[in-house]
Amino acid sequence: MTVFRLKNNPATGDLAIYSVPDHSSTDNAPLNDPYSHPDRLQFHSGMICPSTTPELTKEVTFTIPGQAAHTKYSGQINLFAHGKGEPCMVEGRIMNLNGAGQHVTFNGTVPVNVTATGHATWLALGATNTHVVVLYFGITAAGFASFNLTVEASAYDFLASGPAPTADPGLPLMKHVKNSYLQMGRGMVDTRRRYLRKVDSDGDLFLATGPTLSIIGSGKTVSPSYVQNELGWRWRYSCAGYVRQTTQGWNGASTNGGNWNAPFIRVKR
Predict the structure, then answer these.
(1) How large is the average pLDDT for residues 196-200?
(2) Which residue from 57, 103, 124, 170 puts its CA 20 to 30 A from 29's CA?
(3) Residue 41: which domain range?
């Protein structure tokens, strides 16, 4: 039976929560060598633990403006102020994109409003010195009307210039304030904050661990006209079940963007 142990190493000041085979086990390898045993760790004070707070997670609805045909466009939308003074780590998801309850994680640049010929509005989540933002861009064919999106995003304490979040030597290894909060690892974990953690099922987010987009085909034209003769370039974005791709070639024939599916992990926060 697997059990979990909470233990500190007085020599190094490290504190960890990790699995052991049973209560009598003397195996403390995850405490002493965490990077060799990540599958057994729940927490280790020597690792980086970016965190956020409920106040820095917000859900915002905004409008992507309509565009005329044959238009190259881009823009930036401020979601909310993060108060960090510089760009910070952000994560988030587009809410109800495939229908009620169908939320799509921001993995790289995400295509929405996709046409058969592969024209799309591409969205990216990021941060400026002051705000969590959504960037959008694309090129239209027939143009499109304005549309609304809702994004839930979080700003973290992992800042662009660093340093990465570390323990506070002025805090104890563990601190418990009754009916309020618990701190561990000299403040590395605080129950008043939120942390990303990998899970095997029921994740809040699906984070890509590899490329999310593939491009196939050829842009080489054939006389007399590529429109009449060429399928052309095609693309496919696929991650955790959200798939958008070209479905019609330059010549009007039915096609697709290949069979790419990005690797990903499930996380909770």
Answers:
(1) 83
(2) 170
(3) 3-47+165-195
